[in-house]
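task queued by scheduler; priority normal; single chain, no ligands, no partner chains; default sampling; output format set to structure tokens
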Amino acid sequence: MFPYVAAGCVLAHPAPRAAGSPPENLSARAVEFASQSGSTIHAWLMPGREGAGAVLLLHGMGGSRRSMLGRALFLHAAGYTILTPDFQAHGESPGRHITFGALESLDAQAALAYLRTQAPRERVGVIGVSMGGAASLLGARPLDADALVLESVYPTLHDAVADRLRVWLGPLGFLGDAMTPALIGVVGPQVGVDKDRMRPIDAIGHVSRPLLLIAGTKDQYTPLAEARALFAHARAPKELWEVSGAGHEDIHSFAKLEYERRVGGFLEAHLRRADQSENGGVSQR
């Protein structure tokens, strides 16, 4: 029993950290709002240009709003209003356990609602990384955004845990599949996670807005076959970008120029008002 509890504690342990100050050129201000997860969510809000759109940035497991600063910098420079929250049990947002997207899905819903109050006339996109992507899908319904970018998202909680055990156990990685049901069975009830509800692969079919799914070809935590299965369950319009050589890492940092071209172009196509050009002026079309 001890190995299961120990592994579960590693996965579910809170990840608190101070936010510090954001870069001055983001003109960010610290904000707080309540979530039905029971947490008070701490975030940075960065106002943008009217009509340019707004983007919600959702970090991965163990991360914080600082994890998303690279994306925030290039998107804010393009005129978007940006909100970067800390999920419950992450960063400066209180919480007892990380829940792999379960409670975090409530935080994502609260963050999207808050961003809409701050940018009420803007189309809103979401970029969700790993657990942040799962949280975008796992609520009562997927986030009702105008465009959705999901990076390195697990298809099921079983897959996510088994993949990590295979990596962590090294030569004994073949035991990962056998250990996973017991680990989830022991730890899941302790942190309030129902494994039958932790299935992004089922939820993604309910996304009706444009979707860009991003996966690293060398990702051991979310192997490419799993990302392709997730993509197969999504509805059109949808795009899949397989990032050659990328693992389960910050894909923006790994392939910065291509990321900004692809993701920036995707968001511009779906969030810009017709009278907004890429450089912030009036379109000449």
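post-processing summary
- The radius of gyration is 18 Å.
- The longest strand covers residues 40-46.
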